[in-house]
Write a structure and sequence with these properties.
Two copies of one chain form a homodimer.
Chain A: E1 2-6, H1 11-23, E2 25-26, E3 29-30, E4 33-38, E5 51-55, E6 72-75, H2 81-86, H3 88-107, E7 114-120, E8 131-132, H4 143-160, E9 165-171, E10 173-174, H5 187-197, E11 202-204, E12 211-215, H6 217-229, E13 240-241, E14 246-249, H7 250-260, E15 268-270, H8 274-280, E16 286-287, H9 290-294, H10 303-313, H11 315-322
Parallel strand pairs in A: 1-4, 1-6, 4-5, 6-7, 7-9, 8-16, 9-13, 10-12, 11-15
Antiparallel strand pairs in A: 2-3, 12-14
Helix pairs in contact in A: 1-6, 3-4, 5-7, 7-10
């Protein structure tokens, strides 16, 4: 089996590539070749099969990024939410235009590949009181979400036409992201856990009652692999999946943080940020993901397990990258 | 008030321009200038204000098609359903790419114009048993509908950002179209009325039980004018309107035809057309258009009135264009 990962250098891309390299298979199929691309040349982990890495812009995707014989494309490349809000043209070019380039590259192949596309909870609105069913309309209230929803439509149509075979996964907010805060409007949701675990303060732009639809990187990577291997025929024309995330409040997150590191929650300070609040206020806080469960997407682990996995798998590297924990005044 | 009409040479474009030229105002505002464009230079009716006409491709829309000072843009240009199904690239370039060009042209203006966009019932699915509410998801099962739905998303986002102020009207199948059959999959719905009124036979690719969500050109032009003049603020982020069409079966259409021209229905012959049937089978047959009614879109006139209006307003020109009625064997 031959796999292409577009956006392989990002957080999820690296986790996904790590899993593929480690396991050497996808579903029941052994891997023969992995082709990675990102704006900067992505790293290749050790593996028992060839991994090629290339630097390219998804908005001008070269054919070699999805070579002949590709069975599965993971299309993860995107301009994240606050960045797409700050620069409309860049978001359109990468998020919608990039998807058009992926479709064009797939059409050249002799056999239509499975395309796993990471859409987003940001393509919905409804806000804090929403509990969305599988038939909920996507009424995005941010450019990132609009570009993701439009991309879903054209990938779905390309699937119906037999150019490719897409599964559009509307990912929840992924926590806990390692590294530094990024330009996603949801960046604070990871920061209020990660930064205090590093002994650093974090800013909270919403109230403690604010609820977020989240998923762990581990669960997301499992979903991506499942989306790549599932039988898409029962999906029919509708290629959208709302996977089974967790609906958690900031208060629950801070309580979970306290339980793994007492005192850490006191490092979180409430600071107004109208720009961020304006984007995320419309995101729905909960879904009833029946279709995803029916199609075999695994249920989410509890919040405590999510935190412990972050501490074991990602915190050491983040700590090494960010430097020593500061001495706190007692 | 200054108005630009993109796709002004088509059937609806000419009807709309005729109304604007005749009335000399839109809502309560007098018209000062009308700028028309289409792939071929569109005709200009006589008017008491200047009308400029230009030939241009919406996929490469020149800035002059939407000049500085434009208050309202009617964006009607499209590759119709069967044609977009036959040529994916052409549909993408015109239907989605053209909308991107319209947005780019509007962004240059000092004042964001109202953009009235003709989306389509083809952006929905559900088929014969569907009765869709205002919250129905758009799950298009044809490329035309997918490109229209994706265009709606980016126009809606451009509205939220203040680049323009869009109203996306999901038009029913418009009947009765004059002229000749075209490449819309719904072309037969007009043909089974128009052709027998000309003494010609027509092919019916579906059963007489088949129901269609339709609207008259007169009603559509009224809706377009209403969409151009309404206060969009109560719409919020959601710029989509399902206007109040009519749900009618082929049997009801043939009965109405018989009542205006006895014997005419016998000219309609059942002929299988899997390509057309494949596209239109998924289109929903009925809506509950509460939002449109709340926003002041006029209810539809009865089917008999629709037929009589066609006979008065469009049949003479169609007859002149198509030649004399053939002598039928008695």
């Amino acid at each position: 089996m031959q796999i292409a990962v577009i956006g392989a250098g990002g957080f999820l891309g690296r986790k996904l590539v790590g899993k593929l390299a480690r396991e050497g298979r996808l579903g029941t199929q052994p891997l023969a070749r992995l082709v990675l691309s990102d704006l900067s040349r992505p790293p290749a982990p050790p593996a028992r099969f060839p991994i090629e890495c290339r630097a390219c812009d998804v908005a001008a995707l070269p054919e070699e990024a999805i070579p002949q014989g590709t069975d599965v494309v993971f299309h993860l490349a995107a301009i994240v939410s606050a960045a797409a809000e700050a620069d409309f043209d860049l978001g359109m070019r990468v998020n919608l235009g990039g998807t058009e380039r992926v479709i064009a590259a797939c059409r050249r192949l002799s056999h239509p590949p499975r395309v796993v596309f990471t859409s987003s909870v940001a393509s919905f609105s409804g806000g804090q009181n929403a509990v969305l069913g599988d038939d909920a309309r996507q009424i995005p209230a941010n450019s990132y979400g609009a570009q993701k929803a439009a991309s879903e439509l054209i990938l779905q149509d390309a699937s119906r036409r037999g150019f490719l075979d897409a599964v559009n996964l509307r990912l929840p907010t992924v926590i806990v992201r390692p590294g530094r805060p990024n330009r996603a409007a949801s960046s604070f949701v990871s920061a209020i856990i990660r930064e205090p675990l590093l002994g650093l303060s974090a800013e909270l732009p919403v109230s403690e009652d604010f609820a977020v639809w989240v998923a762990s990187p581990r669960r997301v990577i499992d979903w991506l692999a499942h989306a790549a291997a599932l039988d898409s025929r029962p999906m029919g024309v509708d290629r959208g999946i709302n996977p089974p995330g967790l609906s958690v409040s900031v208060r629950e997150m801070l309580a979970a943080l306290e339980s793994v590191k007492p005192g850490a929650a006191s490092l979180v300070r409430r600071v107004e940020d109208p720009e961020v609040a304006g984007i995320i206020a419309s995101w729905p806080a909960a879904f009833v993901p029946e279709r995803a469960s029916r199609l075999g997407f695994a249920a989410h682990e509890p919040l405590g397990e999510l935190l412990r996995a972050f501490i074991e798998e990602d915190l050491p590297a983040t700590r090494a990258e960010r430097g020593p924990e500061p001495v706190r005044p007692s």
